[in-house]
Specification:
This protein is an alpha/beta fold. The chain has 10 helices and 6 strands, in the order E-H-E-H-E-H-E-H-E-H-E-H-H-H-H-H. It has 2 domains: 129 residues, 3-Layer(aba) Sandwich (Rossmann fold), CATH 3.40.50.2300; 79 residues, Orthogonal Bundle (Arc Repressor Mutant, subunit A).
Length: 224
């Protein structure tokens, strides 16, 4: 990375872009090298300017920031993206993190804090607004739990995997027992083992997990 942090700004409000440009242009070692409010111009600007960071709003029309972030990643452009938004939604934060955002800042932060955050992100840190810290921890914890469960699938026996798929279809223990020609008590025991190994609290959670896992595998197999 060059000594000067080179930024591209994406926000569909011209006034906001101008304000951010003025803020950063008054900061030593930071330079705004491009900006737009048009989604179709983002990738060409990144390809032309090769900035150190892209700072982008989330709520934009007609294409929102998450869709643009997805387009950037599909175009194999590795410019780090910082979301600067009014949205303090945990779901928006989670979606941005999943798409590879390196920072999530709020527009009501003090300008000095935004500048400091941008410097830290340019140096390689993952930075979120202080108000989003707990929500980030919730997201990371949820992601770790999901990974643990996916790894735990390898611990399931072939029969337990089979029963898990029946749970995903919403079948009762009695139906599963009849379908697999095993006893009701045996099914109950298998379900207990499944919940224990996957660290789940109920058969409903097991069913949801199985459905999500199957959907994830289908996305991978189809290349989506």
């Amino acid at each position: 990375m060059t000594e000067t942090i080179r930024l591209v700004l994406v926000d569909d409000h011209c006034l906001c872009r101008r304000g951010l440009t003025e803020l950063f242009d008054h900061c030593y070692g930071i330079s705004v090298v491009g900006g737009t409010g048009n989604a179709s111009e983002v990738i060409p600007i990144l390809q032309d300017t090769h900035p150190d960071l892209l700072i982008m709003d989330l709520r934009m029309e007609p294409v929102d920031g998450l869709a643009i972030l997805d387009q950037i990643r599909k175009a194999a452009i590795d410019t780090p993206v910082v979301i600067l938004t009014m949205s303090d939604s945990e779901s928006d934060l989670a979606a941005a993190m999943r798409l590879g955002a390196k920072g999530y800042l709020l527009k009501d932060m003090d300008p000095e804090d935004v500048v400091n955050a941008v410097r830290r992100i340019a140096a390689g840190e993952l930075v979120v607004a202080p108000a989003m810290t707990v929500k980030l921890m919730n997201f990371l914890q949820h992601g770790q739990q999901e990974q643990v469960r996916k790894n735990s699938l390898e611990l399931l026996t072939e029969r337990e995997r089979e029963i898990l798929q029946h749970l995903a279809r919403g079948e009762s223990n009695k139906v599963i027992a009849r379908t697999l020609d095993i006893s009701y008590d045996t099914v109950k025991q298998h379900v207990r083992h499944i919940l224990f190994k996957l660290k789940l609290a109920s058969r409903v959670e097991a069913a949801v997990f199985a459905v999500e896992q199957r959907a994830s595998e289908n996305r991978v197999s189809t290349g989506h």
